[in-house]
Amino acid sequence: MESDAGLGLDGMGGSMTSILSDQLEAHPPASTRDSVSSFTSTPSRSLSTNKKNVTPIPANLLPSAPASPPTPAPSPTPHQRPPNWLSSDEEENTFLLNLRIHFSTLSNARKQKLLEGILDVCDSQQLSFVSSYVGPRLRKDPFLVFPNELCLRVLSFIDDPKTLARASQVSRHWRELLNDDITWKNLCEKHAYAVRRISNDDEMEPSTPRLVDSRPESHALNRRLTASNEASIESTPGLPRTLSGEWLPPSSFSARRRRARPVSYRSQFKQKYMVESAWNKGGRCTQRHITPDQGVVTSLHLTPKYIVVALDNAKIHIYDTNGDNQKTLQGHVMGVWAMVPWDDILVSGGCDREVRVWNMATGAGIHLLRGHTSTVRCLKMSDRNTAISGSRDTTLRIWDLATGTCRNVLVGHQASVRCLAIHGDLVVSGSYDTTARIWSISQGRCLRTLSGHFSQIYAIAFDGRRIATGSLDTSVRIWDPNSGQCHAILQGHTSLVGQLQMRGDTLVTGGSDGSVRVWSLTKMAPIHRLAAHDNSVTSLQFDNTRIVSGGSDGRVKVWNLQSGQLLRELSSPAEAVWRVAFEEEKAVIMASRSGRTVMEVWSFAPPPDEYEDSVAIESASSTPGIGSTDDTDLTINPRRRKLFSDPPPTVSSSDADQPMPDASS
């Protein structure tokens, strides 16, 4: 019994020891982990094999005797798993590392299948984390990947400057790309801005016409120099031209130094864009003059140096381009109905049948030219020393302004000569006898007679290729100056066509019916029909982008030339608008208000500091390696933020009211 009991306990003890050893081996206590290695280094022995040496425990001691300490675990056999001493975090990191290594070895199809399986067991919170984690990694900055040439090519498709302005604030690299001059040159071309490279030494203001006349037949397009003079001037070094191709008199250069000119296409676009925005919904009235007496404005000219106003009370007022009063020319004894400026020279004529030549710089009279026997109704100059006058006495006279003598008297019309247009050596006259005639200035003779109108001719335009005439018979006729043939009859007006201006392949007409019409001279068809005014169109002028019209209804309206859309009304309504003249950054309005003649000078030019460019463009090249931008370049001056913002509000013109003086100086 004792031996059997001993064997049974011995077997039970060996079995428990073996189990405990396995547990300790798998999960050793922290206090004994270091000592386990010493135990495992001793020779292994079986507790159950040496049964003879085991002393049996007395039965009476079993219930109360404390359990003896466990026998050290034997060394693991080759069939047992080695112990894992890593923490749970380390195990997890090892598992993830192995998973990543295994995942990288899979094919794309297996990778996608594994990801699908993982995502299928994720809850909404985990999927939201995946979305927020993956989203930013799918968005890459293409401008950091593509070469600079390709980036600039992408930017060239952006037409909106506001988009480019916002894009320049994304990052330093984007700003460097957008400071490249190629981008802004392309934008200038898309917006039809002049793309002539401008330097600091350029003293001219870009795209400012040499001379602007409120009367279409007196527009600068019709005051081109003769071919011989053009050839001689082109050979003169340093003599600049406007962007429209017209030569500027040398003495007018100093008037161009009003501000530092743009030195990059970016600066040029900025200036043009701000001016265009001001025309659309900004601008300010910088000067306002009121005549002390009544007077009808018969002629208005805006030159690079002067604003010249002629009245039917025999007075001529001269202002600088800012509208500051300079002097009044007095000499005519009756109303002045025609005048034409050339640099500092002014030629005027009126009801007193006299033609007077003035020096506008000094206000002194140079010549008094007599010969006409009736009112001088129209005047033109072909060069500084040659003037042509048309009169109600049916004749034209060619005057030598250097000597103050009449070169030729051109006879042929049977009624009053109402309008003139000049191109090179040719002058075209329109008459109340319903005909137009082409004359040679140098030869002093009539070359061709243009017949076809049924009533008086009131307006004429000539660009060297075509002649346009507007008549009381409500039609506009287009003539070939070489053959004298009528190419087309443009019909649509219902009353007198008294306003004409031709520019390239576009013709704009205004009539007493209050309408303004835009015609294509290539198709000989109307482009736009504008219901402009409630009464006669008294003044009309257009450039490459806009049309400005004034009417007897007292309103001045600005139209988009391309779309025919009304952009705005300029100034407040008056009793009547006599004349309007404008250039790129300025407009002059002559109107009747409360029985008096009022002159308003409107400016659309941004302040001088707005021309400053925050980044200097060293080159127009788009090659890789665009110059880096300093940290200071990323700081945007609040003033410069106005580049693509709305223009400033209109300033009330009543703050600058000044009377027109009667004094001669």
Automatic annotation (TrEMBL):
Gene3D superfamilies attached to this UniProt entry: 1.20.1280.50, YVTN repeat-like/Quinoprotein amine dehydrogenase
Pro residues biased stretches: 66-81
Record CDD domains: WD40
Polar residues: bias regions: 225-235
Domain F-box: start-end pairs: 140-187
Region called Disordered, residue ranges: 1-87, 203-245, 617-665
Residue stretches in coiled coil: none
WD repeats: 329-368, 369-409, 410-449, 450-489, 490-529, 530-569
Compositionally biased spans, kind Low complexity: 35-49
Pathway per the UniProt entry: Protein modification; protein ubiquitination
Keywords: Repeat, Transcription, Transcription regulation, Ubl conjugation pathway, WD repeat
Pfam family, any one: WD40
UniProt keyword Nucleotide-binding present: no
PANTHER family referenced in this protein's UniProt entry, alphabetically: UBIQUITIN LIGASE SPECIFICITY FACTOR/HREP PROTEIN, UBIQUITIN-BINDING SDF UBIQUITIN LIGASE COMPLEX SUBUNIT
Family: Belongs to the WD repeat MET30/SCONB/SCON-2 family.
The protein's role, per its UniProt record: Component of the SCF(sconB) E3 ubiquitin ligase complex involved in the regulation of sulfur metabolite repression, probably by mediating the inactivation or degradation of the metR transcription factor.
Subunit structure: Component of the SCF(sconB) E3 ubiquitin ligase complex.
Protein name according to UniProt: Probable E3 ubiquitin ligase complex SCF subunit sconB
Protein's organism: Penicillium argentinense
